[in-house]
Amino acid sequence: MHETRKGRVLRTAAIWALICWSILPFAFMLRVGFAAPSDIRGGAPDWLAPLYVFNFVDLFGDTEFMGAIGRSVLVAVVSSAIAIAAATPAAYACARMQFKGRSDFEFWVLSTRMLPAVVVVIPYFVLFRQIGGIDTVWALTVMHTVVNLAVTFFLLRSFFADLPAAVFEAADLDGCSETKKFMSVAWPMVRNGVAAAAVLNFIFSWNEFVFALTLASGEAKTVSVAMLGFMQFQSVAVGPMMAAGTLAVLPVAVVLFLAQKQLVTGMSFGAVKG
Amino acid sequence: MSADRTAVLSRQAAGSPPAAPPGTTGRTPRPDDRRSRRLFLIGMLAPMTVLLLAFTVYPFVSVLVNSLRHNNLTRPDEQGFAGLTNFANTVGEPGLLRALLLTVGMVLVAVVAEFALGTLAASLLWRPLRGSRLYLALLVLPFGATPVAAYLSWRLMLNPDGGQINAALAAVGLPTPGWTSEPMLAVVALVVVDIWQWAPFITLVMLAGLKSLPDETFEAAALDGASALQRLVRIALPMLKPLVAFVVTIRAIDAVRTFDSIWIITGGGPGAATETLVVRIYRTAFNDLHIGEASALGLLLLVVLFIVGKRFAAPALQRLEH
Predict the structure, then answer these.
(1) Helix, strand, coil content of chain B in percent (nearest 5)
(2) How many distinct structural domains can be found in chain A?
(3) Does ipTM top 0.85?
């Protein structure tokens, strides 16, 4: 199946066109973020204007936005840790043990990914309103933990399922207990998978919007909601808003570069190895 | 742990074979083994099960209860059993049918376009090519990198008054439509943003599928004179049928739940032009504070999504695994 020179040039051109389309909003974000207010007219930047860094300088001095970043990190780290602690044993059990109702259990986990956050958040809004959880970091952390469970479970299950059967047979011959097989045999072999799950959970929590908007949009607001704060002043705050967007995207973009395969595996419930 | 080990050792000494994993080799597990295995299993599944019960059963029950009660946070004095009033109120409103049709229409167009574009892009990357690794790395950005920031960027670009898109159109003398201010165009704009965001996901999934197919089949087809498009549509896609069914189902279910992009780019407007079901539920609950009616509508949506998931997503996932 030899590709002609012309075919290869066309294919390359088509791929580059797609690349431009995919990164367009990010390129726009960077350009506006680095543009002086006088170089932005009606929301469109002068693409040839010199770079202007003071949107970022101002942002680093903006305690409200920096506080939101700090809370985002806190919520993401804690919710990720709890989700992994809860999902890892279940993922192992479903990947390496036979039991009745396993596929029903897995579908149940999968179905939690299908619930619209907009519907799930209603009862939690009512509940947290009664027990004083509205606009607190802990309420959001709890919600992000459960939101992350399904992806963590399916990602780790695929890692556990990929382990060679021979290792477990050898462990059985050595008389290892179930607990020991999990703790001393399987667990050390999936550490990379757990790291990948931690990274993905961090990203999902960092990106999450519906629960953050509904349950924590005041004092406890996180990055995604804090970005909306720049909208009130319309064109005046366009530069700062896109600078904030850049700061919100940057850590995720860097990490995604390393964890793109795991992201696809997790989001396809382990069906695709990426 | 050491007790387990001694038990096994003494059994070995007594001449019985070592413990085999249940279901693998011939030996029937002793009742003792079975009980400790069951305890182990319960211990492994319990933490996640408890958390997920809190996430699924509690909201479900609570939405059910709320949907049957008068619960309007602006009128706290009116409480109590409401029967099916909430359902009657939501279903009776003309806006609901609109929202339903809009949701179905947007999901259909978006998912079909995403599948077509995503698969075409995957086929471009199927054979090795310089630059494709860079593209693969960039592909995850639209659906992975802080969507709220990307939506804000789109919102600015789509702004009818001097946004980037209209500024570019004006520069070459083309008309500058009201992307977010005209009802029809606002819907189109949101579908385009959804395609921008999710076609890359389809590309990555389909590319993984295409790469798993044996090269020889396609070399033979090429020798027989099958064009690249024929090889993709006639040979590769039928071979990947379970994957196609799976990815289309989960994408469709996800598309029904789309909220962030609509809320940030148009807020459901102009008027109610882009008010899909989830946006309507959100507005009913958190703008009007009609928790009862929002719960009634939410419950209906939950049931529909659950049935669709059980009917299509679960079998597709199972077929994929075997």
Answers:
(1) 75, 0, 25
(2) 1
(3) yes
Residues with Cβ < 8 Å from A100, sequence gap 6 or more? none
3-state secondary structure of B271: coil
Which residues of chain B lie closer than 8 angstroms to A125, CB-CB? Answer: 285-286
Q: For chain B, what are the domain ranges? A: 94-321
How far is CA B62 from each of CA A123, B76, B291, B295, rounded to the nearest angstrom?
Answer: 6, 18, 11, 9
- Residue B320, classed as helix, strand or coil, is helix
Chain A nearest-CA distance from B231, in A, is 12
Contact B145 A149 (CB under 8 A): no
The domain containing residue A205 runs over which residues? Answer: 57-267
CATH topology of domain B94-321: MetI-like fold (1.10.3720)
Taking the Cβ of residue A131 and every Cβ of chain B, the question of whether any pair is shorter than 8 Å is answered with no
Digitized pLDDT (tens) for each residue of chain B, 322 residues in all: 344 433 433 333 444 444 444 444 445 556 677 888 888 999 999 999 999 988 778 888 888 888 888 888 777 777 778 778 888 888 888 889 999 999 999 999 999 999 999 999 999 988 888 778 888 888 889 998 999 999 999 999 998 888 899 999 998 999 889 999 999 999 999 999 999 999 999 999 999 899 888 888 888 888 888 888 888 988 899 999 989 998 998 899 999 999 999 999 999 989 899 999 999 999 999 998 888 889 999 999 988 888 888 888 778 777 777 6
Q: Most B CBs within 10 Å: which of A128, A272, A273, as the mutation test of the B interface? A: A272
C-beta atoms of A43 and B156 within 8 A: yes
| E-state strands within A5-69 | 40-41, 44-45
pTM listed for this prediction: 0.88
Two tokens, residue A248? 């919100």
Q: Is residue A256 one of the residues assigned to a domain?
A: yes
How close is the nearest chain A Cα to the Cα of B237, in Å? 16
Between chains, do A45 and B164 touch, taking CB under 8 Å as contact?
yes
